[in-house]
Design goal:
Blueprint: H1 3-11, E1 15-16, E2 18-24, E3 27-33, E4 36-40, E5 45-51, H2 55-63, E6 65-70, H3 76-82, E7 95-97, E8 100-102, E9 108-120, E10 123-135, E11 141-144, E12 147-150
Antiparallel strand pairs: 1-11, 2-3, 2-6, 4-5, 5-10, 6-9, 7-8, 9-10, 11-12
């Protein structure tokens, strides 16, 4: 099967947009990623997947920690900056969660230390043990079929049935 056909099929799955951050020798590094998932509740584990040639791969291996920042619908520009699609003149400000750098106002900030890693195909899967979480109000930034999207707001939402 052709690579493009496979990529298009995988791109049909709508995902949230995250920025993965870490800090090495006092320098903060980040990259936009949508290969993230919750792995386990007990213990609290998450998984991220990074391509073998990604600059962040080496940084996470060096630091042994990372944060997942789930972006809000208002943070599309940040997604583009950390994806290397847009350059900005100003310095990006970070907050800290459990001593790890996070994106201010992200919908969710998940601090982790690397529990294990697995090389599969051309990616490394990092399993992170969650050390802290912070939540904010707002709506998520969505990515599907190569485009940013937002959730449609319903005028008359139907109440959940128990």
């Amino acid at each position: 099967m052709e690579d493009r056909k496979f990529r298009n099929a995988m791109g049909s799955f709508a995902t949230g947009v995250t920025v993965i951050t870490t800090e090495v020798d006092g320098n903060i590094h980040g990259m936009t990623a949508n290969a993230f998932m919750s792995q386990s509740l007990i213990p609290k584990l998450v998984a991220i997947s990074l391509k073998e040639d990604a600059h962040m791969l080496k940084k996470i291996k060096q630091s042994g920690q990372f944060c997942i920042n789930v972006l809000s619908e208002d943070q599309q520009d940040l997604s583009k900056v950390f994806a290397g699609q847009v350059k900005i003149d100003s310095e990006i400000q970070f907050d800290y969660l459990d001593g790890k750098p996070v994106i201010p106002d992200a919908l969710a900030q998940v601090a982790c230390h690397v529990k294990s890693e697995y090389i599969e195909g051309d990616h490394t899967l990092f399993i992170g043990e969650v050390t802290d979480v912070n939540l904010e109000d707002g709506e998520p930034l969505i990515f599907s079929k190569g485009k940013y999207r937002t959730l449609e707001k319903l005028e008359n939402p139907v109440a959940a049935v128990n």
